[in-house]
## 1
Amino acid sequence: MSYAMRILDDSKKKNPNEPEFHQAMTEIIPSLTPFLDEHPKYEKAGILERMIEPERQVMFRVPWVDDSGKVRINRGYRVQFSSAIGPYKGGLRFHPSVNLSIIKFLAFEQIFKNSLTGLPIGGGKGGSDFDSKGKSDREVMAFCQSFIDELYRHIGADQDIPAGDIGVGGREVGFMYGQYKRLTGQYEGAFTGKSLTYGGSLVRTEATGYGLVYMMENMLAAKNTTFEDKTVVISGSGNVAIYAAEKAVKLGAKVVTMSDSNGYIYDGDGIDLDAVKQIKEVQRGRISEYLKVKKTAEYVENGLVWSVPCNIALPCATQNELLKNGAELLVKNGCMAVAEGSNMSTDLEATHYLQDNGVFFAPGKAANAGGVAVSALEMAQNSSRMSWAFEEVDCRLRSIMHDIYTECSMAAERYGMKGNLVAGANIAGFRKVAEAMLQQGVV
Ligand code: NDP
Ligand code: 2IT
């Protein structure tokens, strides 16, 4: 058995009951085999064994009081996976499904993603099983403050810098940053995704979605085409989905679907994004409410968005949202390219099905890296006490996404897997972290 497969097997045994973490490791580790075989120095130094073991993981109690005066308890997590190339960096997810396995898979992927950005950021992730749906602003604030009452001792501008993810946007980051500042007395960039009024960066709100579309722009260019006149199917209707749709439309495409965990909307005229922003960002409502604005649109409860014919598909909701049955529908309807906005949108079976049927595919760690890349630019602006113009940040984002595409393509080609951006992203992301670990000794 190869070094990579042996380590994967050992880790699965050592971490039972962590299916998402197993899945993330299985998607990455075997694809590193040609690189590891070529460089035995990494096996000798135990790089892979060290890389799959988080440097530290914290789990804690989060008590808070709801509007009826009842005490509620949630569980908080922060997994500080790797600081080989920079301070731990990665978002916080608040969703009832959150558990250690999910946070570990996200933190593990984040190591490779952050490495691909070319910026000095290590990998981490955190969150809670808190469900903000139906909660008042005061309840969300009470939860966020209690969460930070514990987390503050583990984070800091040069130590670990959280940001948003599912269920964590500008409102939550604001409440958490306020509490962090109160407890530490430090006005430092210990969070990214902050609002513009207190140290946020222009383009951070848009960055993941815009970056995803810039990645797809590079993929389409390699196939001698563009977004012009393409039909795009998008899942989700949160931060990533909304700004991916906005940029795709700007580049000439028509976006015909969006969804949430209850169902999807189909609008053959192209989704009215101002309406979606009003429903999702202002009213915090359900996507089905779109039909009140656009009577000719359709709403399909519990439907599979991948059944809608398209040229391009951008999954932007959550992990394992596009499985083999969805991939079959996309292929049957002639979809030419898929890029993951959500982390681990597909499983390996669906990924292989898409690739084997000629669909150009980009994995999340490359395609959605624009969010964390602009987070790193926010950190740079904070530490230099500067703020850059929208055009400057957007231009840097576009160039970072181009570089990621090129790095992944070249790494795939170098190891005999031309066009396989999954293998390319894994190898290109791994190589920098592995080399940094080697140079820093046994730590
Ligand atoms: P939001 O909370 O803004 O939106 C999440 C969207 O996905 C909502 O429409 C939500 O619907 C839907 N969704 C969430 N969980 C599920 C589920 N279990 N089943 C079906 N639908 C679900 O999150 P983001 O847009 O920030 O994140 C979306 C994805 O992008 C995540 O995978 C995240 O990890 C990834 N990502 C985010 C980045 C960022 O900068 N925000 C950066 C890189 C990746 P509902 O309202 O019904 O829950
Ligand atoms: O998955 C991700 O890359 C994010 N949620 C963004 C992380 C960040 O630190 O901006």
Note: The mean pLDDT is 98.
## 2
Amino acid sequence: MKILIINCGSSSLKYRLIEADTEDVIVKGQFERIGIDGGHFTYKQKNGGSLERNAYIPDHEEAVRLLVRILTDPDMGDLESLDEIEAIGHRIVHGGNKFTDAVVLTPQVLKEIEACSNLAPNHNPVNLHGIRACMKYMPKTKMVGVFDTAFHSTLPEEAYLYGIPYEYYKNEQIRRYGFHGMSHQYVSEETARILGVNPSELKVITCHLGNGASITAVKNGKSVDTSMGYTPLEGIIMGTRSGSIDPEIINVISENDHKTLSQVMDILHTKSGIYGLSDYLSPDMRDLTAAYHKGNPNAIRAIKAYVYQIVKYIGAYTTAMGGTDAITFTAGIGENSSLVRSLVCQRLSVFGITIDETANENGNDERIISTPDSRVKVLVIPTNEELSICRQTKALIQE
Ligand code: ADP
């Protein structure tokens, strides 16, 4: 059964055609710089074949049209006919309170997703463009929406409510939603598989540390707390995002520096995090790591603060779940930064956690990096959001 995965960003469309029964990737690639100069398109096949083109791609509809053409191209394509695609799984960022699971996309469902757009104005509309373009060029194919927020729909009320007047929740649905749901779900299930236990018997803290970063407490297969909130700005320090701060700081910067509210918010989104903390040395952990090893005080300050916040969330979530069996690191920094993992785990020795530095330093693949006698297992698992979308799409169409 072949499933096509579509992930639309504001100026990109990433795709992956997966043989869902074996989970083999048949072909993957992306369209970049959609609607802006310097458009670029890649098509990378399982057998090593590939195609790259520079071309202006005016919009997502044109990207889908080109994708359909190349997929069924007699020379280069991987499909004889579009009928071979059983379903398309679309990534959708925000499902609001409404969508707590993957859903078959019908005109009525699209209207309801549109209604959640105010919760993710930069993401949901562009996700919908991609869906509509696929419906135009592949009208006979079943479409499924998989939501970033859905995995966190199991948060208990005490974890998702903010300490503001309840009317804001009742009238405007202001609550913690959480993000990176597919990644947290995928790595928590993989953690259970690697440890040889059922997800329903595992307490795991998943640390998705990329440019955006969030930490989730997964108890018995369900998300019970997560660090991102109403938007992906809340939580730990990120690449350029501040994470949680005292809201009064917004007032103070606005008044002292004569900045508008949107200018201050821009600082919190694009000039903060490890970038701002390192005095604008870099938002990229690779650069900061190199500088850290040379003793650069800006890099040391940023990395220490970053690590400290991760440790605080792990401590809090261990308490929230009444203990934890495992901690799993994923995404760009979680998968690749042995420095961050090592510094985090050193501060967790109070929980009886010890890591094997050789396993921590070596390997790119999924692995256990804690010592056999560590009370809590520590793992590194590369995330695979596309596979998570594929599994959820397959499960839904087979129901
Ligand atoms: P996004 O949220 O954009 O998907 P990624 O998951 O790709 O982000 O993570 C990007 C982050 O991962 C960057 O800070 C980058 O420096 C970091 N990273 C990637 N490779 C390494 C590495 N080898 N060592 C340390 N950090 C790395």
Note: The mean pLDDT is 95.
